[in-house]
Amino acid sequence: MNVALVTGGSAGLGRALVTALADRGWTVITDARDGSRLPQSPNVIAITGDITDGVHRRALLEQVKLADRLDLLVHNASALGPRSGDTRYRALAETTPEDFQDVWRPNIGAPLVLTSLLLPWLVESRGILLSISSDAAVDHYEGFGLYGASKAALDHITLTFGAENPTISAYAVDPGDMRTEMHQEWFPGEDISDRPLPETVVPHLLALINARPANGRFRAADINLVQEVA
Fold first, then answer.
1. Least confident stretch, 1-5, 121-125, 221-225
2. What pLDDT score was predicted for residue 158?
3. pLDDT, tens digit, for every residue of 93-105?
């Protein structure tokens, strides 16, 4: 049985991907700070905790040890960054070292450390490292400098892990705009009902997992839906 670890599985794309993999018979280890929101399934191992906490990361590691394999590691959990008031995110000139840490720890530090912890199992299974990126990693939006920089760095460390470990496949994927809680936070007070649901992105991720092209950065919309994950 294939084993996946998907961080941030309580909502949005993370939850949709956890559910899809579990429905296909995968064992899925997932986490969230609010464990009550995690999917309930015989195939889902739900662990409550914060990905930036070392004790929590060790708990995830212990679950992988129990499974004794890891075929897919998905870095999905992330933070947008600090706000100025209720409607505007802070410009770079307004950010503080504390703001930097608040974004960098969940978006870069935790994925880097967790991948390093789990790398032996990922290498052993010739598995896949998949990080959920953003168009903000390559484009530039007012108020999202820290977030965009963190996603660009996440792309870089993901693909560097792939370069340093040729037995694994490594992908950074921009899912595009979605109708999620996080996207609503990005656009407070705006109607985002025209955005696609995260469930529409999942088939593109599954096709990527199944096809296993050369390592690289992809837009989900550009991934050909020719195959579905087994």
1. 221-225
2. 98
3. 998 999 999 999 9
Q: What is the CATH number of the domain that holds 204?
A: 3.40.50.720
Question: pTM surpassing 0.90?
Answer: yes
- Residue 230 counted as domain residue: no
Beta strand 27-32 pairing with 128-132: unpaired
Domain count, the chain: 1
pLDDT value for 176: 79
3-state secondary structure the chain: CCEEEECCCCCHHHHHHHHHHHHCCCEEEEEECCHHHCCCCCCEEEEECCCCCHHHHHHHHHHHHHHCCCCEEEECCCCCCCEECCCEECCHHHCCHHHHHHHHHHHHHHHHHHHHHHHHHHHHCCCEEEEECCHHHCCCCCCCHHHHHHHHHHHHHHHHHHHHCCCCEEEEEECCCCCCHHHHHHCCCCCCCCCCCHHHCHHHHHHHHHHCCCCEEEEHHHCCCCCCCC
Q: Comparing 180 with 113, which gets the higher pLDDT?
A: 113
185 lies in which domain range? 3-222
